[in-house]
Amino acid sequence: MSKSLPFGLRIAVLLTFDTQMLDMVGIDLFGMLSKEYMENLPGPLSALGLDLQIYYIGKDGSEALSDASKEKADVKVDPRNSATTPTEVTESTTASRPGPQQAQAEQTNHNLRALTAQAYIKAEYSVTSPSVQPGQLDIVMIPGPEPGQQQSKQTLDFVRQHAKYGTTILVVCTGCYVAAQAGILDGRKASAPRALVPQLRKEFSLVKWDDQRRFVKDSSTVSGQSEGELWTSGGICNGLEMIAAFINEKIPGPMSEAVCAMADVGDKGEYYNSSVGVDNAWWLGQILRALFLGKRSPQLKRRED
């Protein structure tokens, strides 16, 4: 955490390929710590809010939607909403995101990134934008893309530079692939989606993968490679538990506790309640059930009709 902003946070969310929407919803826990959000709470709590700036970064910079994405939808986004499904907006409603003058100059209108559930989010910043370089951020958050997608050199260099500088990095679900490809997990402990850990152990053998914990905090340093704290989580909503633990550790007190209570997160615990073997058996059971129901469901539906 930066010592230059004792009452504020600067966070970048790195969006790569088609990001799982649920992977990135933890950013709203940080949003709930902001002055704008906290001022709606009663009494002294309203005075505890932080100055917060969130930067949403596109894959390789400020490029527009890919041609393939454009074929899916002729997308215009309401700038009043950060995350949105495609919607038509007139030019009169188009506006720059409020913020410092420098930040406004770096933004690119209608630079959208695809999420799951047919949603899009404005990714207004590039990995080369001055506002998101090492020394300018407290946290880089990496939500999960499709597993195994190879990231570009520019994206991986961005992650490496922040790790080397000492920026705190929060990795959610399959964001572990981005971090592992960048090499910042080598020699360190990391969590990941349990079902993917066997594959990850083969592909990234230098990482100390832990499939017993929902999230892992590693404060160790690898000289010249990774100097900051690294937090990694298991699949999807385990990222919420990780971020809840993070804010309770870094900003202890009534504000973080109130935020976690309102969101009803942070009480699952660091360790899973079941073993990997039990989880695998459960998944096998669901596959067999689906196989059986998949053969029968069309006939059952016709009978019901």
From TrEMBL:
<protein>
    <submittedName>
        <fullName>Uncharacterized protein</fullName>
    </submittedName>
</protein>
